[in-house]
Task: inverse folding
């Protein structure tokens, strides 16, 4: 192979619309010794031509992104998770923004997986992974078209539930309420009921229903409320990390309002 085989390999991928590669594939295709390849990869990364992400996975940086030195995560997240052989979906504030809740624009890219992973990040990129043991049915995930293919995202209903379940990690219930105020119009009552039937998180659904009602979105919760009424025999706290004190009891959701949620004005 010629001396610039690695450059040709990378340029060829980009010309075909592929903005990532695995190191093992590069070694196989170019036939270059690993030490030679490593030196080339270090030089290319210093020039913002490529960026190492994780486990031999690199992204290719086209000229329009050279200043930041990174691609939008949407361009490569599916390929990254596929290379790691891990189920995933884009969720929480990242999914909410896709569904139209953009008031709280996330500074991080949120990905849920059945396993725990360290965050990926540098000065211009941060991907946060959230472990989710009760991984959802594919019926509650959507394929979202991207510039380079697609990525899996949570449905509006699953997004809403996850925001409540992971509220501490994303900024608290008041921020969640602000997001739900925008996301709520995309929530379908029967779809929310279907998620409730499949996902074993009754306490979180009660908190979600209460918040939606408080936001004036009770039309989205009537099926959920009927489902919860038949099963919610033990009261729960709106915020389980706070004491109950003399909080108000909400009969509809069998929940103690031990936190005053204040959503931002949209």
Result:
């Amino acid at each position: 192979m010629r001396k610039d085989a690695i450059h040709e390999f990378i340029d060829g991928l980009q010309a075909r619309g592929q903005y990532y590669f695995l190191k093992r594939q590069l070694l196989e295709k170019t036939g270059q010794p690993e030490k030679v390849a490593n030196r080339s990869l270090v030089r290319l990364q210093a020039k913002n031509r490529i960026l190492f992400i994780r486990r031999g996975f690199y992204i290719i940086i086209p000229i329009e992104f050279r200043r930041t030195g990174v691609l939008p995560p949407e361009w490569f997240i599916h390929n990254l998770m596929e290379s790691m052989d891990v189920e995933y979906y884009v969720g929480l504030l990242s999914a909410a923004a896709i569904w139209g809740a953009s008031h709280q624009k996330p500074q991080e890219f949120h990905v849920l997986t059945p396993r725990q992973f360290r965050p990926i990040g540098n000065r211009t990129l941060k991907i946060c992974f959230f472990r989710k043991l009760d991984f959802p049915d594919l019926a509650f995930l959507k394929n979202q078209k991207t510039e380079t293919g697609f990525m899996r995202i949570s449905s509006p209903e699953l997004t809403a539930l996850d925001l409540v379940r992971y509220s501490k990690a994303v900024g608290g219930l008041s921020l969640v309420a602000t997001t739900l105020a925008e996301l709520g119009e995309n929530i379908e009552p029967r779809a929310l009921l279907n998620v409730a039937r499949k996902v074993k998180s009754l306490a979180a659904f009660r908190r979600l229903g209460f918040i939606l009602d408080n936001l004036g979105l009770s039309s989205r919760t009537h099926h959920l409320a009927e489902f919860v009424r038949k099963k919610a025999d033990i009261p729960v706290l709106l915020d389980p990390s706070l004491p109950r004190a003399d909080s108000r009891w909400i009969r509809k959701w069998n929940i103690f309002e031990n936190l005053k949620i204040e959503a931002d004005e949209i």
Summary: The chain has a mean pLDDT of 93. The chain has two domains: 5-65, 73-257. The two ends are 59 Å apart (CA to CA).
